[in-house]
């Protein structure tokens, strides 16, 4: 009986030591996990700050580049043209088959020039760019679009889509263009060139 009691006591002691070790290991693991979480949080905070500084730097560079393009009169070449294909692909599912800048035609002694033209299956885009957009530009651009096929008859079988491009747009001009069915293309938060009223026109 005493032997059995001794063995039982030894078993209890062994189980107690096991539970103590298990609890110690659990606390150690919890502590290590907490340290890891703290390190990851600190790393994430540092990366967030780094990306934030990078975004600010990119926006600053985009502003400087845009101001330079505006002064040099190269908004079409430097800002609109590089973004045109990805923008048309994104919003119109358009694989551009033809793209041109400063497209000039003369007919019966009359000159007609478009800042940029892009075409894909079933659609042709007339892009007119202004350094400082104004409301009356929209009327002028729409008037120009009415004569587009007269000077570019090879696109008559395609749907004509008009895009008004610039660096930035005041909200009132975006709303006016939307009412007239004209897409506006400019910087979105100084991060990338984008169609700024696509959803509003296609509601």
Describe the structure.
- The structure is a single chain.
- The mean pLDDT is 87.
- A six-stranded mixed β-sheet has the order 1-2-3-4-5-6, sandwiched between helices.
- It contains six helices and six strands, in the order ααβββααβαββα.
- The termini are far apart.
- By secondary structure, it is α/β, with parallel strands linked by helices.
- It folds into two domains: 72 residues; 128 residues, Trna Endonuclease, Chain: A, domain 1.
- The protein is elongated and about 125 Å long.
- Helices cover 58% and strands 22% of the residues.
How many helices in DSSP terms?
6
Q: What is the N-to-C succession of helices and strands?
A: HHEEEHHEHEEH
**% residues in beta strands:** 15-25%
Cα(first) to Cα(last) distance is: 89 Å
What is the strand and helix layout of this fold?
Elements (H helix, E strand, L loop, with lengths): L1 H71 L2 H18 L5 E10 L2 E11 L2 E7 L5 H11 L2 H4 L7 E7 L5 H9 L3 E6 L3 E4 L2 H4 L2
Parallel strand pairs: 3-4, 4-5
Antiparallel strand pairs: 1-2, 2-3, 5-6
């Amino acid at each position: 009986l005493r032997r059995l009691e001794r063995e039982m006591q030894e078993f209890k002691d062994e189980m107690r030591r096991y539970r103590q070790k298990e609890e110690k290991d659990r606390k150690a693991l919890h502590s290590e996990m907490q340290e890891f979480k703290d390190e990851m949080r600190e790393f994430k905070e540092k990366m967030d700050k780094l990306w934030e500084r990078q975004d600010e730097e990119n926006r600053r560079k985009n502003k400087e580049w845009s101001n330079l393009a505006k002064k040099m009169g190269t908004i079409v070449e430097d800002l609109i043209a590089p973004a045109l294909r990805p923008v048309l692909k994104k919003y119109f599912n358009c694989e551009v088959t033809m793209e041109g800048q400063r497209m000039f035609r003369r007919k019966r002694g009359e000159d007609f020039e478009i800042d940029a033209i892009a075409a894909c299956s079933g659609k042709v885009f007339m892009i007119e760019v202004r350094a400082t957009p104004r409301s009356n530009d929209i009327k002028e651009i729409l008037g120009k679009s009415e004569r587009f096929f007269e000077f570019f008859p090879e696109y008559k079988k395609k749907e004509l889509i008009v895009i008004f491009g610039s660096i930035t747009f005041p909200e009132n001009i975006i709303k006016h263009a939307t009412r007239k069915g004209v897409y506006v293309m400019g910087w979105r938060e100084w991060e990338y060139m984008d169609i700024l009223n696509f959803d509003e026109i296609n509601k």
